Amino acid sequence: MADSPLNKKALGHIRVLDLTRVLAGPWCAQNLADLGADVIKVERPGAGDDTRHWGPPYLQDAQGRDTTEAAYYLAANRNKRSITLDIASPEGQEIVRALARQSDVVLENYKVGQLKKYGLDYASLKQEKPDLVYCSITGFGQDGPYAQRAGYDFIIQGMGGFMSITGERDDLPGGGPQKAGVAISDLMTGMYATIAVLAALAHRDRTGEGQYIDMALLDVQVAMLANMNTNYLASGQAPRRWGNAHPNIVPYQTFPTADGHIIVAVGNDGQYRRFVEAGGRPELATDERFATNPMRVRHRDILVPILSDMVKTRTKQEWIDALEAAGVPCGPINNLDEVFENPQVRARGLRVDIPHPTGGNVKLVGSPMKMSATPPACSLPPPLLGQHTDEVLHGMLGLTQAEIEALRDKKVV
């Protein structure tokens, strides 16, 4: 997507000072950047965000050689400007304070209390800019008995209950707890943090008042269990793992085909009848053990193996064609090759290619937010380490080239 004029950027009037690294914080910052905010990513001199080195795979240049930019880093850092800065140094701390005075939002994900010793905590920066929106992201929040613990997504998925309801049934082969295939507590914390920042900015615009936002991965992981939480709170019974099956509906699960897997999501008895008729087994609809959903749930251990054998006789696409024609909800389980070749994904423009200074073009997934007046734009590639240090220090703070070089000699930038 081409860059939008300033008046087409929802957050074109907002500047974000991003002191975060890895995923939850950068994901929030990337959302804000996609919506037009000027995001300045502050990184350690010589090293940068940890995820720059989380490869392979790496971005490749025009000759097919690996660059130093890991694909993991590329996923969460487009549309930002990168500066390198040693915030442990007095000079670096003063630069952060100067940048914060010209920013609307500060994002950080340091350990609880770590920035206070540098004078870069909310209480300190609020003195510099009273209407500042300051968002801290940690594993467990700013208070409570676990506040000083480091928070890792995998651990949070287990501790927050997600893995207790994810994975195959304990009584089946491969049964047991399973984490998600992506770092969901990190990503969802980034999403919740985005919402909180936008709400705080709206409040500031009405009242002139800034505020502090305390985001915790554990809080988010617990909150996002949604109806599973309320199922437990209403019944007192902890939900169990059902793998790809449903506790209350049969069949509502995955099935292996001759060449892959499909999802069949039968929601009523009519859809079930059409499913087994499409499979050449109409007698399964009149069998009293399977005729109604309550009976199918009761006899799932008998019915599901029969249905599995039926589905294995055809390919994935043959089943999808037959079931769509019969009005039975279904879908494929695609690998990412198939995802990015899917005509709907292509039509929605989810893959974007952006020119990159070392990689020729970088292939990314664009923002899923479709907005008629202020569409998100993928205009800047994930920046090289420190790519914009001189630009920011000179353009925003008025430092001369000699002053910048003096800071570089002292390894402050």
Question: Would you spell out the secondary-structure blueprint of this structure?
Answer:
Layout: E1 15-19, H1 24-34, E2 38-43, E3 58-60, E4 66-70, H2 71-74, E5 80-84, H3 90-101, E6 105-108, H4 122-128, E7 133-138, H5 153-159, H6 184-207, E8 211-216, H7 217-223, H8 227-235, E9 252-256, E10 261-265, H9 269-278, H10 283-286, H11 293-298, H12 300-311, H13 316-326, E11 330-332, H14 336-341, H15 343-347, E12 351-356, E13 360-365, H16 389-395, H17 401-409
Parallel strand pairs: 1-2, 1-6, 2-5, 6-7, 7-8
Antiparallel strand pairs: 3-4, 9-10, 10-11, 12-13
Helix pairs in contact: 1-6, 6-7
Structural features, described:
This is Formyl-CoA transferase. It comes from Noviherbaspirillum aridicola. The structure is a single chain. This protein is of the alpha/beta class. The chain has helices at 24-34, 71-74, 90-101, 122-128, 153-159, 184-207, 217-223, 227-235, 269-278, 283-286, 293-298, 300-311, 316-326, 336-341, 343-347, 389-395, 401-409; strands at 15-19, 38-43, 58-60, 66-70, 80-84, 105-108, 133-138, 211-216, 252-256, 261-265, 330-332, 351-356, 360-365. The strands form four sheets. A six-stranded parallel beta sheet has the order 5-2-1-6-7-8, sandwiched between helices. Strands 9-10-11 form a three-stranded antiparallel beta sheet, with helices on one face. It has a two-stranded antiparallel ribbon with strand order 3-4. The longest helix has 24 residues, at 184-207. The radius of gyration is 26 Å and the shape is elongated. The model has no long low-confidence stretch (mean pLDDT 95).
